């Protein structure tokens, strides 16, 4: 046995509140790695895409989520389509209402564009977190519940608050460097299964380094 089937939507048929979202129907400009799950106790986790807001294909921005991420219910990804032009006197989007107001439709280059939103591997995103456009979250990071993430988050750090701020590092710089080179999430299923105790124990990292 080498663990659950990564190709199944519900890896544990007894728990219908958790699903592997890489197995949802594909959506343009969204990439999700194997074993990453979304958990929702109030509605079907199959509704994960509802949490990606203002994501318009013509803008071209992507949401990229790595492998083995844990995403709690209520997490929102705000994409670049939410941005208004800010260079004029007003930010009001007259153009979307038509009836002649469309004459001030901004060109794409007139709008703030923050690029792709990228979530690394083995990232834990707590309940009701909001992630703003163009944010990059490093591997192994943890984001506390109810946080609003407006800036990039370094690998293996813990952030929290509104706006989210650095709380602490999970490991020393040397250990983080080792883990970023190790990339355990790219191991095959058999190797992960064989090393589960090491990956989940407090002493496991020291054992791997030795």
TrEMBL record:
<dbReference type="InterPro" id="IPR001451">
    <property type="entry name" value="Hexapep"/>
</dbReference>
<dbReference type="GO" id="GO:0046677">
    <property type="term" value="P:response to antibiotic"/>
</dbReference>
<dbReference type="InterPro" id="IPR011004">
    <property type="entry name" value="Trimer_LpxA-like_sf"/>
</dbReference>
<keyword id="KW-0012">Acyltransferase</keyword>
<comment type="similarity">
    <text>Belongs to the transferase hexapeptide repeat family.</text>
</comment>
<keyword id="KW-0677">Repeat</keyword>
<dbReference type="InterPro" id="IPR018357">
    <property type="entry name" value="Hexapep_transf_CS"/>
</dbReference>
<dbReference type="GO" id="GO:0016746">
    <property type="term" value="F:acyltransferase activity"/>
</dbReference>
<keyword id="KW-0046">Antibiotic resistance</keyword>
<dbReference type="Pfam" id="PF00132">
    <property type="entry name" value="Hexapep"/>
</dbReference>
<keyword id="KW-0808">Transferase</keyword>
<protein>
    <submittedName>
        <fullName>Acetyltransferase (Isoleucine patch superfamily)</fullName>
    </submittedName>
</protein>
<dbReference type="InterPro" id="IPR050179">
    <property type="entry name" value="Trans_hexapeptide_repeat"/>
</dbReference>
